[in-house]
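Thread amino acids onto this structure.
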């Protein structure tokens, strides 16, 4: 389907990002209302998935946490405790820069 990324699918390449038509189509889906029955770990993973997707869209950490419904202090507490989480978030924050570089280099090579 042109112009939309499948529901629940992460944007991982410039070509997927370029298919999107409007900025509102790039926002990650908000948390599912059925998450009330989820375990605490599942709930945090869902929150952090939303944060990661927002960071891939070049949001600030404060904006991403606000959209996901968690505090910035919670983000940094988890960031300091879990090196895998920290690596995921660092890569998400670098994603927009890498996509911009890719676009520039593709344009230069044409």
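Threaded sequence (110 positions):
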């Amino acid at each position: 389907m042109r112009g939309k990324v499948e529901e629940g699918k992460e944007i991982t390449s410039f070509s997927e990002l370029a298919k999107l038509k409007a900025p509102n189509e790039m926002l990650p889906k908000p948390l599912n209302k059925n998450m009330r029955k989820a375990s605490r770990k599942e709930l945090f993973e869902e929150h952090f998935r939303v944060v990661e997707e927002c960071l891939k869209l070049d949001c600030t950490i404060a904006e991403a946490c606000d959209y996901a419904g968690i505090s910035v202090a919670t983000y940094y507490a988890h960031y300091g405790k879990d090196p895998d989480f920290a690596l995921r978030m660092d890569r998400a924050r670098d994603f927009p820069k890498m996509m911009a570089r890719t676009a520039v280099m593709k344009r230069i090579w044409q």
